[in-house]
Amino acid sequence: MSIFVDDDTRVVVQGITGGEGKFHTRQMVEYGTNVVAGTSPGKGGQDVDGIPVYDTVEEAVDEEDANASVVFVPPAFAGDAIFEALDTDLDLVVAITEGVPTQDMAKVNKRLSETDTRLIGPNCPGIITPGEAKLGILPGNIFEEGNVGLVSRSGTLTYQVVSNLTERGIGQTTAIGIGGDPIIGTSFVDALEAFENDPDTHAVVMCGEIGGEDEEQAAKYIAENMDTPVAGFIAGRTAPPGKRMGHAGAIVSGSGTGTAESKISALNDASVPVGDTPNEVADHIEDFL
Amino acid sequence: MKLHEYQAKDIFAEAGIPVPESRLASSVEEVMEAVEEIGYPAAIKAQVHVGGRGKAGGIKIATDEDEARQAAEDILGMDLKGYTVDRVLVEAGVDFENELYVGVTMDRSEGKPVAMVSTEGGVNIEEVAEENPDAIAREHIDPAFGLHPYQARKVVFEAGIPRDVAFDVASFLTTLYDLYESNDASDIEINPVMITSDRDIVAADAVMNIDDDALFRHDDLAAMEEDAYENDLEAKAGEYGFDYVRLSGNVGIIGNGAGLVMTTLDLVDYFGGEPANFLDIGGGAKAERVANALDMVFSDENVDSVVFNIFGGITRGDEVAKGINEALESFDEIPKPVVVRLAGTNAEEGMEILNTDLVQVEGTLEDAVQRAVENAQEVSQ
């Protein structure tokens, strides 16, 4: 089994005629993903490798029965593209675009809360259910079908940990990069909950990083709600304090969250072992299985 | 992008937020000219991006000419937490009765902006947040509608702002939120906002950070960018559009994706080395970008060895390999040993392209980092 995407997912690629959109549509199709349509305003009626292009997402949904979209639209227009997707009641929107202004995402987040659509990203590598479908830019060849779920804030760190797992013959149910931006659609807790409810997921890897307090919230969720074992990794132990995080964040929460230390200790308190290296995370997962 | 205090205050003044009269000065003579125009007492404030400037000796109050000259001599050229002070803001002193803290920032766990007001201004507000969080009133803002006037009043009354200035502080906060939104700020903080004996409100300090991802729609702010950097390498990183942080070690690190680059830093530390920098070339980097990254790291005189850690998704290994070759071929002698680890999209093609006379190639992350740490140790011996 899997979470969020499978063989039946019918995908529209927003921004299919752009360089990245075109390249990764080919990669997705090659992987076996059911890409049924693309959009590119003003280029409706054309096609990309036989995939019909529409001017609007609404047309793509009406004509091709798409139920998920992948957004490859440049940052300046990505917020608008996500709004467009949300207005068609898709089940899932995966926003790959990096560099979407935070205030645009705050508006998207508000709209999202009024819909039933699941948003993954932005600034994420996407989601893959090995052997079935991938929505995004993840390199398909490093994944393998199996029973470990993976959720990560960092794309490239996802690839690293997955390759550590796959090299040992440990496959994955679904892997999701949720994105590292301040405002994202799907959180660790959302993904962990879905993995907990998936009978085929026997263990979960959670890769976090400094900043925000998503990992601390996830630790709380794991302690209270999960039977499936989780192993963690936290990037940024050596990151200089205050360099990347505006200090106002600490004033909002009024607590010392957001550091690697606070995240690691929150996870340890929830009985989640945290690896010092990606390889050690794979060791922990091996122990669970 | 962090704005300097003087840059933020220019923006405030334009929006009608009262700020003290001030002049920017970069020499003792300029400071003396400025105090002559402004009068005493005057505050002389280092313009560098570090918190706690006052405690670190970067802010001094002068009540006469001798003190002004002394302050200018002390502060200009001083090293403030690693940054050399080359400019000061000379500002008229404010005779105040109350000090407030007012801020607007993004609350990432709520996904909404939040306005914050406290009567405990003028001190370390982070400590207040930690020890007495209730002393800071907070109000979340619906980004679709902005800060409603009733919300501004609510947070101001909740904070216990004196009634005779409450409406003025509320309208001050509304202006601040408008600035936050219209400039795509990531946060704005004023600590302290001063209430004078005439019950006027003055922004005595100004912290304003802009969302880099939104600079494309703010030409006016982008024009301030050159002035916003602290050192040559950061300015260079800004020009190239890299996420870059300079650190104190000697192992230069280039990678793609913040999480993986941070992990590489952590592993350098784990294997007994010290990272010299964080450099994320971002997603989908082409050959030229890779060459620029190498140029950045080679220009840091602290760097003794370099490790490239690329796990391609949207980034393609062959492009990266071409970039590395092109950049290194331009040298008669490669300045520092370079270890490369390529995985993911088109990694095999990349490995074939890499010129192994120019770089050392390793198959795993651990091996690459260990080798780079060893290289650095050899070079520094």
TrEMBL record, chain A:
<dbReference type="GO" id="GO:0004776">
    <property type="term" value="F:succinate-CoA ligase (GDP-forming) activity"/>
</dbReference>
<feature type="domain" description="CoA-binding">
    <location>
        <begin position="4"/>
        <end position="100"/>
    </location>
</feature>
<dbReference type="Pfam" id="PF02629">
    <property type="entry name" value="CoA_binding"/>
</dbReference>
<feature type="binding site">
    <location>
        <begin position="17"/>
        <end position="20"/>
    </location>
    <ligand>
        <name>CoA</name>
    </ligand>
</feature>
<keyword id="KW-0547">Nucleotide-binding</keyword>
<comment type="pathway">
    <text>Carbohydrate metabolism; tricarboxylic acid cycle; succinate from succinyl-CoA (ligase route): step 1/1.</text>
</comment>
<dbReference type="InterPro" id="IPR033847">
    <property type="entry name" value="Citrt_syn/SCS-alpha_CS"/>
</dbReference>
<dbReference type="InterPro" id="IPR017440">
    <property type="entry name" value="Cit_synth/succinyl-CoA_lig_AS"/>
</dbReference>
<dbReference type="InterPro" id="IPR036291">
    <property type="entry name" value="NAD(P)-bd_dom_sf"/>
</dbReference>
<protein>
    <recommendedName>
        <fullName>Succinate--CoA ligase [ADP-forming] subunit alpha</fullName>
        <ecNumber>6.2.1.5</ecNumber>
    </recommendedName>
</protein>
<comment type="subunit">
    <text>Heterotetramer of two alpha and two beta subunits.</text>
</comment>
<dbReference type="GO" id="GO:0006099">
    <property type="term" value="P:tricarboxylic acid cycle"/>
</dbReference>
<dbReference type="GO" id="GO:0043758">
    <property type="term" value="F:acetate-CoA ligase (ADP-forming) activity"/>
</dbReference>
<keyword id="KW-0816">Tricarboxylic acid cycle</keyword>
<dbReference type="Pfam" id="PF00549">
    <property type="entry name" value="Ligase_CoA"/>
</dbReference>
<dbReference type="InterPro" id="IPR005810">
    <property type="entry name" value="CoA_lig_alpha"/>
</dbReference>
<feature type="active site" description="Tele-phosphohistidine intermediate">
    <location>
        <position position="247"/>
    </location>
</feature>
<feature type="binding site">
    <location>
        <position position="43"/>
    </location>
    <ligand>
        <name>CoA</name>
    </ligand>
</feature>
<dbReference type="GO" id="GO:0009361">
    <property type="term" value="C:succinate-CoA ligase complex (ADP-forming)"/>
</dbReference>
<dbReference type="InterPro" id="IPR005811">
    <property type="entry name" value="SUCC_ACL_C"/>
</dbReference>
<dbReference type="InterPro" id="IPR003781">
    <property type="entry name" value="CoA-bd"/>
</dbReference>
<dbReference type="GO" id="GO:0004775">
    <property type="term" value="F:succinate-CoA ligase (ADP-forming) activity"/>
</dbReference>
From TrEMBL, chain B:
<feature type="binding site">
    <location>
        <position position="256"/>
    </location>
    <ligand>
        <name>substrate</name>
    </ligand>
</feature>
<comment type="similarity">
    <text>Belongs to the succinate/malate CoA ligase beta subunit family.</text>
</comment>
<dbReference type="InterPro" id="IPR013650">
    <property type="entry name" value="ATP-grasp_succ-CoA_synth-type"/>
</dbReference>
<dbReference type="InterPro" id="IPR013815">
    <property type="entry name" value="ATP_grasp_subdomain_1"/>
</dbReference>
<dbReference type="GO" id="GO:0005524">
    <property type="term" value="F:ATP binding"/>
</dbReference>
<dbReference type="InterPro" id="IPR005811">
    <property type="entry name" value="SUCC_ACL_C"/>
</dbReference>
<protein>
    <recommendedName>
        <fullName>Succinate--CoA ligase [ADP-forming] subunit beta</fullName>
        <ecNumber>6.2.1.5</ecNumber>
    </recommendedName>
</protein>
<feature type="binding site">
    <location>
        <position position="99"/>
    </location>
    <ligand>
        <name>ATP</name>
    </ligand>
</feature>
<comment type="function">
    <text>Succinyl-CoA synthetase functions in the citric acid cycle (TCA), coupling the hydrolysis of succinyl-CoA to the synthesis of either ATP or GTP and thus represents the only step of substrate-level phosphorylation in the TCA. The beta subunit provides nucleotide specificity of the enzyme and binds the substrate succinate, while the binding sites for coenzyme A and phosphate are found in the alpha subunit.</text>
</comment>
<keyword id="KW-0547">Nucleotide-binding</keyword>
<dbReference type="GO" id="GO:0000287">
    <property type="term" value="F:magnesium ion binding"/>
</dbReference>
<keyword id="KW-0479">Metal-binding</keyword>
<keyword id="KW-0436">Ligase</keyword>
<dbReference type="GO" id="GO:0042709">
    <property type="term" value="C:succinate-CoA ligase complex"/>
</dbReference>
<feature type="binding site">
    <location>
        <position position="94"/>
    </location>
    <ligand>
        <name>ATP</name>
    </ligand>
</feature>
<dbReference type="GO" id="GO:0006104">
    <property type="term" value="P:succinyl-CoA metabolic process"/>
</dbReference>
<keyword id="KW-0460">Magnesium</keyword>
<dbReference type="InterPro" id="IPR017866">
    <property type="entry name" value="Succ-CoA_synthase_bsu_CS"/>
</dbReference>
<feature type="binding site">
    <location>
        <position position="45"/>
    </location>
    <ligand>
        <name>ATP</name>
    </ligand>
</feature>
<feature type="domain" description="ATP-grasp">
    <location>
        <begin position="9"/>
        <end position="219"/>
    </location>
</feature>
<feature type="binding site">
    <location>
        <position position="91"/>
    </location>
    <ligand>
        <name>ATP</name>
    </ligand>
</feature>
<dbReference type="GO" id="GO:0004775">
    <property type="term" value="F:succinate-CoA ligase (ADP-forming) activity"/>
</dbReference>
